[in-house]
Structure to design on (72 residues):
């Protein structure tokens, strides 16, 4: 199974919804643990990288793609 590719600033979709109802999270810190911030209510959570990779479905908006759009 290939590793999921994500980077700082990406907005990702998680398998389970946050209690506020949103399942979109923005990656705001990366390392052994990853801090994600709920797009809906701005609550942030620090979780281990292994648990994050297991619970992440896909990258919805990449920060890199947004920068390329701004350059044009």
């Amino acid at each position: 199974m290939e590793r999921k590719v994500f980077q700082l600033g990406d907005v990702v979709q998680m398998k389970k919804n946050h209690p506020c109802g949103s399942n979109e999270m923005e990656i705001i810190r990366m390392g052994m643990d990853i801090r994600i911030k709920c797009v809906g209510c701005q609550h942030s959570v620090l979780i281990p990288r292994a648990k994050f990779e297991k619970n992440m479905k896909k990258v919805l908006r990449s920060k890199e793609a947004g920068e390329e759009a701004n350059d044009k």
